[in-house]
């Protein structure tokens, strides 16, 4: 069984400040990890994903995340927030290579990011 | 969200009516996934379909819900005799094959049951 915990349902930052959205997961098999962004009344857009290889993953719009196996974490960061980053962010996990249900994503409850001018 | 088309965007049904949600995958994609997002919750897996086959329906409620992905046409998620608790956003995603990790979702259908 897998689960995802996103610490902080709402994060507020100033424009230009560091963005840090936290995600911890539990998985009985090596995981694949994802961050998605959802703008109001829209679908989810994939920001970045970790499958294998380098643990620091770069995504779109200047976001990156680091897979830390020892901490079971996959936190999302961006050095400088922009007003257009205001949205809801979801962390998700699936079974990794060899997992029978690797198509199935388990999502966290989401973190709403507000960017103040 | 480019490519996965869902309609309608918004659907209002009275209790007891049927709701039909449509999903047209990206051209060339034969794998479709449905997820449901309840208010203030993350998305939850409902069903995984390939053309004419249901691969995994472990997330589907046992009654009133069904899904299909026919050889021709869109995938359909059907909810019979809707109740207030069915009010949610329903998202569809597609992939070319099963190993396309991190598929992209459509814009969703927001179902409101009154």
Unreliable spans of chain A are none
> Can you count the beta strands of chain B?
11
User: What overall form of chain A do the CA principal axes indicate?
Assistant: globular
**Topology of chain B as a string of helices (H) and strands (E):** EEEEEEEEEEE
The largest sheet of chain A, given as strand count, sense and whether it forms a barrel, is: 6 strands, mixed
Oligomerization state = heterodimer
Tell me the span between the first and last alpha carbons of chain B.
Answer: 29 Å
**Rounded Rg of chain B:** 13 Å
Q: Strand-residue fraction of chain A?
A: over 45%
Q: Indicate the percent of residues in helices of chain B.
A: under 10%
**DSSP E strands of chain A, number:** 12
User: What does the overall shape of chain B look like?
Assistant: globular
Q: Give the topology string of chain A: H per helix, E per strand.
A: EEEEEEEEEEEE
Q: If you compute it from the alpha carbons, what radius of gyration of chain A comes out, rounded to the nearest whole angstrom? A: 14 Å
Count of alpha/pi helices of chain B: 0
Number of contiguous helices of chain A: 0
Instruction: Return the average pLDDT of chain B rounded to an integer.
Output: 92
Beta fraction of chain B: over 45%
Unreliable spans of chain B: none
**Average of pLDDT of chain A:** 91
The proportion of residues forming helix of chain A, as a percent range, comes to: under 10%
């Amino acid at each position: 069984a897998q689960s995802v915990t996103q610490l902080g349902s709402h994060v507020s930052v100033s424009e230009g400040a560091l963005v840090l959205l936290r995600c911890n997961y539990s998985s009985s098999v090596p995981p694949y990890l994802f961050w998605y962004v959802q703008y109001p009344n829209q679908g989810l857009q994939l920001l970045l994903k970790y499958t294998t290889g380098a643990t620091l993953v770069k995504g779109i719009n200047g976001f990156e995340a680091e897979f830390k196996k020892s901490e079971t974490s996959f936190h999302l960061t961006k050095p400088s927030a922009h007003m257009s980053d205001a949205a809801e962010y979801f962390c998700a996990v699936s079974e990794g290579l060899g997992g029978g249900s690797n198509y199935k994503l388990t999502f966290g409850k989401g973190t709403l990011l507000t960017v103040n001018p | 969200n480019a490519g996965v088309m869902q309609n309608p965007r918004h659907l209002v049904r009275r209790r007891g009516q049927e709701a039909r949600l449509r999903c047209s995958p990206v051209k060339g994609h034969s794998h479709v996934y449905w997820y449901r997002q309840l208010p203030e919750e993350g998305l939850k897996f409902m069903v995984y379909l390939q053309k004419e086959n249901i691969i995994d329906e472990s997330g589907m409620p046992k009654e009133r819900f069904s899904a299909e992905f026919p050889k021709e046409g869109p995938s359909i998620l059907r909810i019979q005799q809707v109740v207030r608790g069915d009010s949610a956003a329903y998202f569809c995603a597609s992939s070319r094959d099963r190993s396309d990790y991190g598929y992209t979702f459509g814009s969703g259908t927001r179902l409101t049951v009154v």
